[in-house]
Amino acid sequence: xxxxxxxxxxxxxxxxxxxxxxxxxxxxxxxxxxxxxxxxxxxxxxxxxxxxxxxxxxxxxxxxxxxxxxxxxxxxxxxxxxxxxxxxxxxxxxxxxxxxxxxxxxxxxxxxxxxxxxxxxxxxxxxxxxxxxxxxxxxxxxxxxxxxxxxxxxxxxxxxxxxxxxxxxxxxxxxxxxxxxxxxxxxxxxxxxxxxxxxxxxxxxxxxxxxxxxxxxxxxxxxxxxxxxxxxxxxxxxxxxxxxxxxxxxxxxxxxxxxxxxxxxxxxxxxxxxxxxxxxxxxxxxxxxxxxxxxxxxxxxxxxxxxxxxxxxxxxxxxxxxxxxxxxxxxxxxxxxxxxxxxxxxxxxxxxxxxxxxxxxxxxxxxxxxxxxxxxxxxxxxxxxxxxxxxxxxxxxxxxxxxxxxxxxxxxxxxxxxxxxxxxxxxxxxxxxxxxxxxxxxxxxxxxxxxxxxxxxxxxxxxxxxxxxxxxxxxxxxxxxxxxxxxxxxxxxxxxxxxxxx
Length: 502
Description:
about 75% helix; 3 domains; Growth Hormone, Chain: A; 18 helices; mainly alpha; globular
């Protein structure tokens, strides 16, 4: 077995003739390719809705499935890493993601789209994790997770807005299917480069996949996707008046019961009971739920405002993606400096992040008028994405500093059920119901639809601001568990830990 014997900054996965100075940038190129490639593209929602004759809820459900596919990868991350070489994993991930992008433009059945989105999300994070786990020693030589996580979330949550802007241009000039063609091309490039430039190097002996609870993987996936279905389609189908919603609720209850039961008699369930007992986990889940509801105001109220009141086109809105990228960059830099250089506590950074998001909501309350120009949206969006990145970095770093590492990736999966799963659909359902309920009242009072629409959005922003202030007060009054500073373990330490557990 090959060994790391030439320092932490030499990437041993490449063939010897590949120059050392290019190896890091090859991984960055792979990261860029995986971030652009997706099973579903948010910027192509309306085009897919029209061409496939499906509802917007169908497209949103597929998009949520992509994020759940990402989430379900976490508990398997190191098991797959120690079973397959980096070269093999990159080739498998790129092949799987390319096939998903190949099939999506030719599939118009909603549930097949959901399955393809879920699979694409899984392979996307598979490839992304393989890149991140290998460049960790270069980004954070001391294995300081707060530094590394600032870089990770900058790439995952901030740089994605650059790709959104690029995808808007592609959709506008060439059509939405060209996004998937481009993704297939990028994944083919990753496959060929991994095959030609890399060698089957292992940082540790091969670890078998025995003992993985694949049944738990399927059941937890069914549980969270069914829960999202209930919330996403509830308003459209009439909630409990629909047999589909009642069946989905039954599936949620049954799958959850099976998962809880498996924790008691399976030696290594997909999600262990110990992960749910980590202190402050439930508080963090509530915080991510509140964040999801606040951020849903951007996805629902702001998009309704810019499209229904200001009548901005996609090309105009692409300008806002660059502002969101700038906000994410500022949030990542701030969190990195605040947590590492200035030693601000996780609670302080979390509070500042939420204050920025609440500030966005407050500014939008005064911005929602028929006479708003595009530039007035710049500062609110800058604040929103600044806070978004700061909160994610602070809370995820906090979990790493306080939870046992053997449960850390399971905890990320559990938090993912909220932060990338159910939170956004809950916020979406609340705002959609609010618009439906308040619009009629304002239309009766004002008599004209445009004024009533604006008044409805302002009122919902007002309620959201009050909710945000309550969240800020709760954070200020809360106590964060005192953390123990410890670096992220290296691959060999993780391998030894997994061997003991398995």
